[in-house]
Amino acid sequence: MTTVIENCAIATVDAADTEYTDGHLVITGDRIAAVGPGPAPRDLPDDGAPPRRIDASGALATPGLINTHHHFYQWLTRGLAQNAHLFDWLVALYPTWSRIDERMVHAAARASLAMMARGGVTSAADHHYIFPRGTGDLLGAEIEAAREIGLRFTAARGSMDLGTSDGGLPPDFAVESIDDALAATEAAIDTHHDPGFSSMLRIAVAPCSPFSVTTDLMRRSAELARAKGVRLHTHGSETVEEEKFCHERFGMGPTDYFAETGWLGEDVWMAHCVHMSDDDVAAFARTGTGVAHCPSSNARLAAGIARVPDLLAAGVPVGLGVDGTASNESGELHTELRNSLLVARLGPHREAALTARQALRLGTHGGARVLGRGAETGSLEPGKLADVVLWQLDGLGHSTIADPVAALVLGPPAPVTLSLVGGRPVVERGRLLTADEHDIARTARAEARRLAESS
Fold first, then answer.
1. In this predicted model, what pLDDT tens digit does every residue of 265-299 receive, in sequence order?
2. According to the model, what pLDDT value does residue 43 have?
């Protein structure tokens, strides 16, 4: 099937930041066949069926947004611990989270994915690290939800083995043994990981954080990931409390600890990275370690302002993340485009911190690089996967902003008139096509209530 999109502004987010005020896209199968100014060629190859032609007047075409860090299960605990920093927030919520089961995780994942899809996300990564005993296949529940909604998915199989009795933060009943965690992670890779160009599902190895994981598990997780050829993910340098924990327990800061345990490299990305020195930034740049920047969650938990302008200037791969919806209750990535720019301008670089186009790049090509998929998606170029979003910008909220990229980033959330994942429509005219939104909301509400009553 060939799809032709015409009469729209286009921000390709390619290496040259090529833009067209009035352009076209041609999509054949799951790939972009052509992108350029003006109308599409009339003499398109005949594949046996007439192409679908879309008049996208008043819209901006961009690559689909890419979410590099999330915790889907937290959809069921939004709005709690509203005035806490990270450690107190975790202590307050761990007892509830440790009671999740497969049904709850599936409902939460469907809701999280549906919310992101409606807001222009075409690829998402989720970091799931709580696996209570006897509660079913929690990772499988997320994978099934992603398949139902139709988004490209990186499932980061997390783990925790450092309970409170050993000096960690999570309660003892919420952690696994090292052997169990590694065996389950290896099984997830062997069962689900697809390394192919058009892959809809990849697995990453993702012990939770320095304050919930032993050094042995960190080291062995890195060894497993590299033996299997998959990526590594964890939280890093999120708060001053984490930095203090690392100095007290390991005698060094988070970045030095990651270097010591084999956790810096082009196959690694870290969530948050708020509290970083110049040496830390240089280490990330030197090793190609990526960053999932979560500005709304960083603000919600009073973590601080990440040094995104400095990271970008040093050449560090940076993408955007929603983070869990217990610390970012909106649960969609468009907010992060805007907040990445606004929060950065509160820092020392002020008005020169980020531009609207840099914010869009963070949410698209930057995210693709962070997830190791920069050659496949993240920009609108011939040969890349047809993960494309059309944002309608001629309505009340945007019609007087002449610059379409500024309208998207700085304006109110723009309606998604079409979202394609591998050329397949997932959202059209603001409506999710792959599942019933009312059923998703109703089921999530019921599961949230069941979780609250079990706590």
1. 999 999 999 999 999 999 999 999 999 999 999 99
2. 78
Q: Indicate whether 274 and 155 sit together in one domain.
A: yes
Nearest CA to 236 out of 191, 290, 287 is that of 290
Helices (H), 295-403: 295-300, 308-314, 334-344, 356-361, 367-370
DSSP 350: G
**pLDDT for residue 46:** 66
312 with 352: CB under 8 angstroms?
no
Give the pLDDT confidence score for residue 335 in this predicted structure.
Answer: 92
In this structure, the answer to whether residues 138 and 46 fall within a common structural domain is no
| pLDDT tens, residue by residue, 56-77 | 999 999 999 999 999 999 999 9
Residue 350 belongs to a domain: yes
- Domain span at residue 401 reads 2-63+384-432
Whether residues 348 and 408 fall in one domain = no
Query: What tokens appear for 36 in the block?
Result: 């350029």
Question: What CATH number has the domain bearing residue 414?
Answer: 2.30.40.10
Number of domains in the chain: 2
Q: Is the pLDDT of residue 49 over 90?
A: no
Residues 43, 72 within the same domain: no
Distance between CA 215 and CA 184 in Å, rounded? Answer: 18
pLDDT tens digits, one per residue of 314-328? 999 999 999 999 999
pLDDT of residue 168: 87
Same-domain check for residues 71 and 42:
no
- Output 402-408 pairs: Cβ under 8 A, ≥24 positions apart: 403/356, 404/9, 404/11, 404/60, 405/11, 405/19, 405/60, 405/356, 405/357, 405/360, 406/356, 407/60, 408/60, 408/62, 408/337, 408/356, 408/360
Mapping DSSP to helix (H, G, I), strand (E, B) and coil, where does residue 226 land?
Answer: helix
